[in-house]
Structures are given as structure tokens and as C-alpha cells.
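Anyone? Bumping this.
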Amino acid sequence: MNPEPFLQLDRVIHEKGRLAIMSLLAANTELAFTELRDTLAMTDGNLTTHIRTLQEAGYVAVAKSFQNKRPLTTCSLTSAGRKAFADYITLLEQIVAQTRQP
Amino acid sequence: MNANWAAENLQTIRTLMERSALYRRALAPVMMLTGGVGVAAGLVGGLTQCDSPGRFIRFWFAVAAATLTGALVVIRRQALRDKEPFWSPPTRRVAQAMLPALLIGLLAGLALLFAGAGFRATWALVPLWLALHGAGLNAAGFFMPRGIKALGWAFIAAGTLILLPILIWPERMEFRLTHWAMGAAFGGLHLAYGLYLRFTEKPDAP
């Protein structure tokens, strides 16, 4: 089996928690921090740490605003994040295809 | 390298993406409010002098507007409580799925209203409205958890059941029964589903 696709996998996305965050954000234009936290059953601290890592990689944008005088934090994928996620899935599909070859 | 690992990761991604597209607000309060207003409206319409086609259509337009407004207020309160945007992508998808059926119902009512339709034509509006509401719920059910599609089919079935006596015994269908039919079907089905959810829905649905 050619190990090259595996070696090319983006380590930032590859971590389980961050992969889940990227998956949810890829399906939506943006999601509230609380929606992410509740859907993934993560703690505030854990989610904040992962979001920060993704933000530093340039994959996720965080916007803070107010809705009815309450703070609202929303997250979305940047174009770089969307591309990285698409590349990651392509690589996974390549790995799956390789394993199915006789 | 584990051969299954990549496939499992892809499945996880697919599941999460599908799950995030689902509408997650608690439905029991919305259903119970809509059902309660619907049943009350059926009683009020049936017991008062709201017995002309024009009055019937205007009355149920008002009921529809009231229930829609009430549902939006409940959903907005839930969004505020959870510190989430009200007009979220799942909410938008549900609204977009329901909109065509609701618009057709509105247009059918307006057409009969302005054409000065008679009693029989207005009677036929009851099964049509119920079936269209069911079609809208069924479409929205693709983006909602927990049996909304089944509720949609229940409305379509109710519309079909109400249509049968209209076709078989048109002369026996008293016009005042339209309100009872709407109250029982529109209000009753929402209320029953709301009560079912009230006792089975987890606080943080789905």
C-alpha cells in the first residue's frame, strides 16, 4: 500500500475533536459556539482550545457579536479551512480506495 | 495502517454533517401552542356565527397567522435562551421546505375568497389545507428529527378522510362542521403530537 496519502493528512484537522468541529462547520455557513458545544458534547474549555488551534491554522474564523444584548460567538470555516477539509476528505477517500484494490 | 480507519473517519464526518443540518429546537411547546390555538379556534368558529365561506376563510387565515406568530415567538425565545441565532441554517431549511405548501394553501384560500366561492367549494378547502399542511410538514421532516414526517402523513390522511364524506354526501355536510373538522384535525393532531413530545422529548433535543 502506498503510504503517501496517509503522510499527507493534515495533522491539525486529523485530531478527533477538531475533525468533528470542521465537519459541523463544513455543513453550515456558521454555527454558534453553544451549538457546537452542545452537538459535540464538549466542555467550553475543550472546545475553546480546539477552536483556537483551528483559528491559528487559519481554518476557522470566530466572530463575536451581540444578540438582544447577549454576547453571541459564532464560528465559520475560512476559505483555507474549507479547502483543507476538502483535501482531507479526498485523501481519506484515496486511502479507502487503495485498501479496496485487489 | 488499519484499512477500516479511513472509512470510519469518513462515516463520522458524514454523520456529523447530516446531524448538524437537523433542526434541534424543542418542538413540544410549538406543537402544543399550535394545537391549543387550533382546538380553541375550532370551538369558537363552530359555536359562533362564523358560518359564511368568506368569514370561514378569513377566520382561519387569522388562526394560521396567530399560530405562526406564536410558534416563531416560542422558537425565538428558545434561541435566545440557548444564546444561538434565531434564523439558523436548520431553521432556514425547515422554513424553506414548508413555504411552498403553505403558500399554495394561502393562494387557494385567497382565490376562493375573492371568487366569492360557495359553501361546497369552501368545504373542499378543509381537506386541501390539511393535506397541504401535511405536505409541508413532510418536506420539513427531512431536516427535523422525531416523527415530523409521520405527522405530515397523518395530516394528509386526515385531509383524505374528511374529503370522503364531502364527495359521498355533499348535501349532508353542514357548513358549521368545517370549523369542527379544522379544530379536530389541525388542532387535535398538533396537540396530540405536542403532548407525546412533552412526555418523551429530551430537554436538549434531538
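Late reply, but here is one note on the structure posted above: The interface with chain A takes residues 1, 3, 6-7, 9-10, 12-13, 16-21, 24, 80, 82-86, 88-89, 204 of chain B (CB under 8 Å).
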